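Q: I'm writing up a methods section and want to include an example of the input and output format. Could you take the sequence below and give the corresponding predicted structure tokens, formatted cleanly so I can copy it straight into the document?
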Amino acid sequence: MVKTAGQVTIWGHDLDRAPRHAAAAIGIVPQELAIDNFFTPREALEFQAGLYGVPRRQRRTDEILAAVHLTDKAGAYARSLSGGMRRRLMVAKAMVHTPPILVLDEPTAGVDVDLREQLWAHVRQLNAAGVTIVLTTHYLEEAQELCRRIAIIHRGKVVACDDTDRLVARLDAKELRLTLDRDLATLPPALAALDAELTGPRQVVVRYRPSQRSIRDILAAVQTDGHAIADLSTHEGDLEDIFRELTSE
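A: Here is the clean output for your methods example:
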């Protein structure tokens, strides 16, 4: 690891003064699959543990293989593993020295839904056990669901960094979809005054800012015009909306 400027401290270790300790505090799962096809998963983990100087009596090879659901493939050559199994093996290799920080670089790229759920279940367990997870991903829905804190990088610069809830709340935008009790030819005056949109004979969409208008005002406008609501749903701004707003030219 080579820094470009300033001071870098990783888990209390200065990168310049204690580079080996700083590096040992991190486990990295790169986006590219870096696996020796002629090693078995057990051999790969044992070799990786040896590189980090983990004594044999302290190695957790079988425990880690079980955690990533590779016990039954422990003795198979890596070249025989599926893409999803190889991805799990990469996570296992990053955990052999029990790092307090785990960096995941696009870990679910090209991964099927079932494997993605298994992988995230394991990552949540690691986080609950005290491991700090740093995730880079283009799946914004995934980031919003998993991460407590999010940074958005645009053209090499951090344009936002905040707790996930506070970041999404910045958008201050909601959408209310109403299904009324009877057909409409045009928007009633009270709804028209709210810049509502008639999207179907009975469907009305109102886009509003919660900081400026409450949903109670919108429902009152419907009642003012003498209509009843058969159904309603709301849509709040999400991380994808925030991303678009912050990175749009």
